[in-house]
Structure formats: C-alpha cells, structure tokens
Design a protein that fits this description.
5 helices, Glutaredoxin
Length: about 190
C-alpha cells in the first residue's frame, strides 16, 4: 500500500467530518428560526374518544384519563432531562392558571416512578404552582400516543375525542396559543 493511500483515506474522513459539521450548523440555524411561540398544533379530526391508560399522581394514587371528561385536556408528555420540556414547563404552569379550571385541565406526565425521582426534584426546583406531577412509570401513554420524542402534547376535547397534538416545546400561555386552545375546545360537545 502506498503512502498516498492513507493520506487519501484521512482526506476522505476530513471531508466527511466537514460535511457533517456543516449539516449540523445548518440544522441549528433552521431550528433557531422555528418559533416556539407559534400556536402550531396539528389538528385531528376524529370521532372516537381516546382510550388511554391512566396515570398516577405523585403519591401513587391512580388518576384515570377519563376522569378529565367534561373538560378540555392538555396532556403533556415530558422528561426531566429534556431541555425543551424544561423550557416550556413554566408556560404550562401559567396556562393552567390562565384557563378556567372548570373547562380545562393541564396535565404533565413523565415516566419516572413514584417517590423521590428526577421529575419530582425538577418540579420542586421549578416552583410550579398549578401543575401537579403525574407519572406513567411503565410508559404506556408514550406508546399509546406513539410519541416520537419529548415534549409531546395531545389536546383532548370534553367528550374524550382527540382534537390536536404538538411535538416540541411551545409557549403555551401566549395569547395566540390560548385563543387556539379555546377555539379547539369550542369544537367539542
């Protein structure tokens, strides 16, 4: 093997690495231009109520999803290691304070077990006032919703029928988002 062959291989790796770095830089620019404040929700036009596994509260008491019937449910899947989740958590807390509790429920669910967990410590550290910690230790909701990542949020109507979803962080308490959520809630019986 000649001395030129290893040099060419190294040059190929350098070119590949440069291409990878350029691709990541482009992805970062595209992501930075996406605004999490937009009320972009993918609407769902379905007629069947969602049949979803229940969750438990921080003390381990079962909380059935059907228990939120009669209110529009903003069901958010998150993880304590997920930076976009942590970014949007305060806005979900403010959203819960802004929407009438008799008409809306904002429920944040994570896969941690009951007891001392990263999620519990995160909630305590963030000082969230309205959101309660809900847990899905077995990850059933994540599978049922076919969540591709965190955060994933599903909006469910008063009648249990899914209305919309969003993948990625949002500024949930923005005027535009609140208006969109209220309009979606008006679609249900």
């Amino acid at each position: 093997m000649s001395a030129a062959a290893p040099a060419r291989k190294n040059g190929d790796w350098a070119a590949l690495l440069a291409l990878l770095v350029a691709g990541l830089a482009l992805l970062a620019v595209v992501q930075s231009r996406r605004t999490p404040t937009s009320p972009d929700l993918v609407e769902i036009f379905n007629t069947e109520p969602a049949r979803l596994a229940g969750v438990v509260d921080a003390s381990g008491t079962p909380v059935p999803i059907e228990g939120f019937r009669g209110r529009t449910l903003i069901l958010n899947l998150w993880a304590p290691w997920c930076a976009p989740c942590l970014q949007e958590m305060p806005s979900l807390d403010r959203l819960a304070a802004r929407l009438p509790e008799k008409d809306f429920a904002v429920v944040a669910v994570t896969k941690d077990p009951v007891g001392d967990s990263p999620s519990r410590r995160t909630f305590e550290k963030m000082g969230l006032k309205r959101l309660a910690l809900h847990l899905d230790p077995e990850g059933k909701l994540e599978r049922e919703l076919a969540a591709r990542g965190y955060p994933t949020t599903l909006i469910i109507g008063r009648d249990g029928v899914p209305l919309a979803y969003r993948e990625g962080a949002a500024e949930w308490d923005s005027d535009a988002m609140v208006a969109k959520l209220e309009a979606l809630a008006g679609r249900t019986r």
